[in-house]
């Protein structure tokens, strides 16, 4: 039974955000698979265009999670509203950090690499340490 504070507007926004999240997550998975299969070694990072598409998708996915948490908080019972607010705050922090990091990677990293600025590795310390493990786990049958 819907809660009194849960309006039809909450339902529409939550449903739209959830569907958008699902679609973007499927696109992310469909982009990751060929990106992983294009690797010559499990230790190599995923290259472009897959990497850039994945980064853009992450920038769009993170705010959708905040919208979904607003809907969850609106649906929560009065007794559980505090937990909904806590979840919303932490999801907002996660989305802000995630979107910021991936936006900077998209915009700054390529400019530093193109300009061959000395010491740019100290500013953008991005590597994908889990890539090799993920490749070995999900694609063990592909010889590298």
Helices and strands, with pairings:
Layout: H1 8-37, H2 50-75, H3 81-115, H4 120-123, H5 131-138
Helix pairs in contact: 1-2, 2-3
What's the short version?
With 144 residues, the protein is mainly α. The chain has five helices and no strands.
Describe this structure in words.
- The chain is an all-alpha fold and 144 residues long.
- It has one domain (8-138).
- Helices cover 72% and strands 0% of the residues.
- The chain contains 5 helices and no strands.
- The chain has helices at residues 8-37, 50-75, 81-115, 120-123, 131-138.
- Helix 1 packs antiparallel against helix 2 (50-75) and helix 2 (50-75) runs antiparallel to helix 3.
- The chain is elongated, with a radius of gyration of 19 Å.
* Backbone shape: elongated
Give me the Rg, rounded.
19 Å
**Average pLDDT taken over every residue:** 80
The rounded distance between the terminal residues' Cα atoms is 53 Å
């Amino acid at each position: 039974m819907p809660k009194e504070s849960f309006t039809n507007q909450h339902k529409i926004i939550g449903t739209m955000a959830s569907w958008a999240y699902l679609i973007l997550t499927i696109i992310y998975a469909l982009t990751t698979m060929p990106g992983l299969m294009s690797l010559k070694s499990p230790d190599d990072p995923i290259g472009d265009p897959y990497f850039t598409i994945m980064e853009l998708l992450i920038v769009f996915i993170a705010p959708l999670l905040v919208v979904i948490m607003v809907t969850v908080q609106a649906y929560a019972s009065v007794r559980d509203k505090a937990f909904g607010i806590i979840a919303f705050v932490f999801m907002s922090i996660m989305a802000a950090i995630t979107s910021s990091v991936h936006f900077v990677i998209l915009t700054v990293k390529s400019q530093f690499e193109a300009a061959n600025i000395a010491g740019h590795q100290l500013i953008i310390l991005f590597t994908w340490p889990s890539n090799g493990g993920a490749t070995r786990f999900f694609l063990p049958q592909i010889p590298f």
